[in-house]
Write a structure and sequence with these properties.
five-stranded parallel beta sheet, about 200 residues, three-stranded antiparallel beta sheet, globular
């Protein structure tokens, strides 16, 4: 029987810029980074519209025991070799492009990410990126030890994701649940949220 999952069994790798310095690095390298170039208004808008909420949410998760890995680069995937157990979860928070995921050290092809994930990792991989189907398919094929790969193949607001994770981690901090059971209803809420984005009030 798989042990229940608590917030301390969860690792969140954050690829998004979390400071003005990181934002400037991304902004000055358009060949390696895409997200900040999609935001009209530059740093002030990014800080006001996204970063303040991101930092508040990450602090909330951390206080519940979640392991937060900021500035998540390709080499940091090696840390999954120490994140052992079927009840462990790794969430990747990043920006998706057609050729790969934008990590903290630049857009990285899906196959390169799969290559560096330890073959022994047997927990859950949770992809908090839009349209991650190519990465999920490659992981299923080449990393069969992964227990479950969770993702929503639809554009979902990052701010919605952050609210949903708050509810999920609060639930796991109060009850003894298997991660698959906990995430089943949670994924449904994410899908409903994505659908509602296109509806008029």
């Amino acid at each position: 029987m798989t042990a229940s999952t608590t917030p301390s069994d969860w690792m969140v790798g954050v690829c998004l810029p979390l400071s003005e310095g990181e934002y400037s690095l991304h902004s000055s390298n358009p060949g390696s980074f895409d997200l900040v170039h999609q935001i009209d208004g530059g740093w002030p808008v990014y800080q006001r519209a996204l970063l303040t909420t991101i930092l508040e949410a990450l602090n909330y998760y951390k206080n519940l025991g979640v392991l937060i890995e900021p500035s998540f680069t390709l080499n940091k995937f090696n840390r999954l070799s120490h994140h052992i157990g079927a009840n462990k979860v790794f969430t990747l928070v990043g920006h998706w492009t057609e050729i790969g995921v934008e990590l903290a050290d630049g857009i990285t092809p899906f196959d390169t990410i799969v290559d560096i994930i330890p073959p022994t990792y047997c927990g859950v991989v949770d992809l908090c990126v839009c349209h991650p189907t190519p990465l999920a398919a490659a992981l299923r094929l080449r990393r069969p030890s992964i227990r479950t790969i969770r993702f929503v193949d639809a554009p979902v607001s990052l701010l919605l994701w952050l609210r949903l994770y708050k509810a999920l981690f609060a639930l796991l901090s109060q009850t003894s649940l298997d991660v698959d059971d906990a995430m089943q209803a949670w994924i449904g809420a994410a899908i409903d949220g994505a659908k509602n984005l296109g509806r008029r009030p």
